[in-house]
Fold these 2 entries.
Entry 1:
Amino acid sequence: MIDSYQFAVAPSRKLPNLDVQNFGWGLSDKPPRRTLVSEFGLAMQVESRRGDETRNILVDFGFTPEALLNNANLLGIDPAAIDALVLSHGHQDHFGGLVGFLQEHSGKLKPKLPLFVGGEGCFCAREWTAPPVWKDFMW
């Protein structure tokens, strides 16, 4: 749903047992009416199928709730169909949209929707110590 702008126009592709669908702005002679928001961060919707069972999982939640909500809506992701939430690690560009998403869809999400969080070090402080500035990634 959200990835760095480099992937905005990447083509969709099929791999063995995997269908990767990329959605970017339409490359045409007409201006877009609405478009996906591309920003620093990551958010993915993953659909897994086994036989006639389907599971929908959101993995990470991007940098801002505005981008996550816009893109989920534009891609037609049904919050009621989500089976689990997964946070890979504690960087703002992976969890920034989570609270806004939960607030926006609180009455639509499944009761007791599980949230899986990365390992023990998921929220350990991480620092950028190289130029141009020092930054703590735990904002």
Note: The mean pLDDT is 83.
Entry 2:
Amino acid sequence: MVIASDDLASKGLNQLAQAALSEDTKVLLLMGRSSENLDAVTRFPCNGYLIQDDVTEEALAQAINRIVIGEVPMPAVLANRLLERARGVTTQERPHCPKLTPRERETLVLLAEGLSNKQIARRMLISQHGVKRLVANVLSKLNCSNRTLAAAVAIKHGLLEEI
């Protein structure tokens, strides 16, 4: 059974999951990244977790296979949250980074390397106009006013490490 965390407010969903687990049905919860969501999903009965924004056919298949063999698939962000709670430590939550397209991520890496639009266009084999559009999208999604700030935000929040 696959359940989206957006549905957790539905009446009776908790009992449905409990019943499924008692009949040895495996339950996978698709969750969001917010701290409120992380706290809510830890109280929900299930066998594993996936970040809803990161679900691909392959990721879903791997999570289901891990559940079947008795493992508990869990995103690092949730594991870290649980460890922080166990230690009694609270760290500042990393701001949610909107999902960047693969080309936007590539552009962000090249921005952080200090390349100009012309250099990025050559590397990506696209026009400078295409680069301007990609840079504008990255700046908008990261809520940054310029490319230097975008590079700083990406480095500060570990976005380049994820890429």
Note: The chain has a mean pLDDT of 79.
